[in-house]
Amino acid sequence: MRLVIVFTGVALFLTQPSVAFSAGQCSPKFYREARLPMTSRLLATGYSKAQVSFLMRNTDHMTSALRGDRLNNNGKVCGIDSAKAHVLGCLDKQLFPLKRGSNASLDEVKLTEGFWGRKRLAARELLSIGHFHACLWRRERVSLSRLTPADGTQ
User: Fold this and answer.
1) Which of 28, 70, 138, 143 shows its CA 20 to 30 Å from the CA of 105?
2) Is residue 120 part of a domain?
């Protein structure tokens, strides 16, 4: 009898991990609350006010495209604001701390085909844009698609 109870408990546990895991992965912050520290960190690490304004304006624009009506079951547990805050949380983890001691100048201006409406961008802006799009893609994959990450992370 104990064996039946143990197997039933294990079976119930195994059928619920995606909801339980995704609920545990909800961002504790709202997008607005996550935005201010990101702005401060960019300024503190050498980004100019103009660069921060440009990056955050476009970050706001890109994350506003994430829509609550397109959330999958994992995303619905936390809500769209949590998904948006996750993008900034991911960007924070990816971008900071910036590697010190690199020979590359983060202020060197590069001529590009045009990202976010500009053709001339500093290396630090390109770095931020690249990391932002990686984080946005990740959140869309986890919260909006029917797919779940192969490694089981959220």
Assistant:
1) 138
2) yes
